[in-house]
Amino acid sequence: MLVRLIRAYLRPYARSLVLILLLQLVQTLATLYLPTLNADLIDNGVVQGDTGYILRIGGVMTAVSLLQIVCAIGAVYYGARTAMLLGRDIRAAVFDQVQSFSAREVGHFGAPSLITRTTNDVQQVQMLCLMTFTMMVSAPIMCVGGIVLALNQDVPLSSLLLVIVPLLGIPLALIIRRMRPVFRAGQQRIDTVNRVLREQITGIRVIRAFVRDAHERDRFTRANTDLFDMSLRGGQLMALMFPVVMLVVNLSSVAVVWFGGHRIDSGGMEIGALTAFLSYLMQILMAVMMATFMFMLVPRAEVCAERVQEVLTTSTSVVPPLVPAAPAPADRRGLLELWNIEFRYPGAEEPVLRNVSLVARPGEVTAVIGSTGSGKSTLLGLVPRLFDATDGAVLVDGVDVRDLDPAVMTRTVGYVPQKPYLFSGTVASNLRYGNPDATDEELWHALEIAQGRDFVAAMEHGLDSPIAQGGGNVSGGQRQRLSIARALVGKPAVYLFDDSFSALDYATDARLRTALAAETRQATVVIVAQRVSTIRGADRIVVLDGGRVVGTGTHSELMADNQTYREIVLSQLTEQEAA
User: Fold this and answer.
1) Is the pLDDT of residue 331 over 60?
2) Which range (193-202, 393-402, 429-438, 473-482) has the least confidence?
3) Given 3.90.226.10, 3.40.50.300, 3.30.230.10, 3.40.50.450, which CATH number is that of 331-578?
4) Is 538 a residue whose pLDDT tops 70?
5) What are the strands, taking DSSP E only, across 472-569?
6) Which 3 state secondary structure label does DSSP give 550?
7) For FRET with 33, which of 17, 203, 347, 459 sits at 20 to 30 Å CA-CA?
């Protein structure tokens, strides 16, 4: 999974990879050549007392060192640049994939996990590539080259490598094998910490209102401690590797000096050759250490790559049409039809909506009302394709929304969600989500209809006043009015209001509905509401109960012959007020 992910996203940077490989090859060969030159300088210069030879070889060593430095700098620069580009591309791919998800897929992964996968998981893969380009490429070259040149210096002494390399490799392999499950659990613990922290930040007012600070503190402490314990286990395994490596390195150096001294004493080896052999031994072990460091990163990167690939390979349940359809301009009236709709969440025993049919016509207001959990918001979410119906059809101007061009859908349907969300930016940038080309005059007009002109004008910078993430610096009612204005700016043919007036006082609600009636008299308006006062004047009221349509008609008609509607109305109004 890791190799497949990296290979796919490194393909555009093949030239950079070739350049990195060449630079690493040159700088590693230069590093390997220096001990041989040093041995030659000692044996033929220092021992012989030939100053001229020392200067000549010293000059060659200086030139080789400069070449090594230049190539190393180039390799690190291009390696880091390529790794950063890889991370950028994977993050962009994950973001694009998440943007294509319906509410169903987002709910399956969860927002905290998606954030972790887009940031921390991608960073781990990026870090592995960075270390590979800057260290791992040179490690095998240095290891093989060191062995060859060590053999060139003294074959009998090189037999020590047959003991040293397995002595180092076997315990490291056993430690690395245990790291993979630990790192997998660690990434899941990060998801949990992100989820708990996100819930606590978002729900800080609820926590304070119910004085649950101690409970939430304990909850976060448990999640944080679980992450600490798992990180500690991984850290202990990583910490165990370096003592093992250093123990083998030091014992190997002692063995080489011991046996090499005997070789020199017997005349089978020169002093310079022993010095070079020691250097090559260190280079071989350094290569093994670099590979060890890489292997420490590999298990975690493998887990992260699997999590990233899981997102990238998950298909959205809301599939764009291969050949988008669009109504003829003359037919774009905003006629909305739902025929025999059924919607069932994956794995659910019972559908949320069953055999629901309704028609919302241009110039009319269609209201949907029902008890909590009756499927009102789900029904409205099917129109802009937040998710697709599992059976039946949703038509806009005679075209199934699953075949509709997404660009046409955006211009045709304006949706105000039950929980209004504003993005960090300004009032104007949020309103222009409805129409990026809207003028300031159009924004003010939409605000006036949505009863938001006064409070925006009272802000210090008007339309350019800052809005915090989620609209945290404005009240709930102001968020709702800005969300309504955002939909009005787009001037769609179909307006969908999902309980969008719940945070407004009755007077503001009444003024807004009066202004909306004039503004949307040619459009199709569908309102989901809990307040009877909000929908009693609708041209058609659809009553949902248990996911089924149990009544359709005007307020007076339903009061006369629909028991479910009467119960809802009389729970809010007296008999005289409801008449």
Assistant:
1) no
2) 193-202
3) 3.40.50.300
4) yes
5) 494-498, 524-528, 540-545, 548-553
6) strand
7) 17
By the 10 Å C-beta count (0-12 exposed, 13-18 middle, 19+ buried), 469 is classed as exposed
Domain boundaries, the chain: 2-312, 331-578
Asked whether the CA dihedral 466, 467, 472, 476 is positive or negative, the reply is positive
Tokens 């994950």 label which residue?
A: 94
Q: How confident is the model at residue 176 (pLDDT cuts 50, 70, 90)?
A: confident
* pLDDT for the residue numbered 177: 75
- Tell me the C-alpha distance between 567 and 354, whole Å: 22
Is the distance from CB of 340 to CB of 357 less than 8 angstroms? yes
Neighbour tally for 34: CB within 10 Å: 17
In whole angstroms, give the CA distance from residue 345 to residue 325: 27
Burial of 99 (0-12, 13-18, 19+ CB in 10 A): exposed
Residue 290 reports pLDDT greater than 80: no
Q: Which helix (H) or strand (E) holds 385?
A: none
- Average predicted confidence (pLDDT) for the chain: 84
- Residue, of 474 and 175, whose pLDDT is higher: 474
Cβ atoms within 10 A of the Cβ of 150, count? 25
CATH fold of 2-312 reads ABC transporter transmembrane region fold (1.20.1560)
Over range 406-415, report the average pLDDT.
84
Could you tell me which residues come within 8 angstroms of residue 215 by beta carbon, excluding any fewer than 6 positions away? Answer: none
DSSP 506: H
Bridge partners (DSSP) of residue 395 are: 337, 400
- H/E run at residue 384: none
Structure tokens at 59: 């000059």
279 token code pair: 């250097």
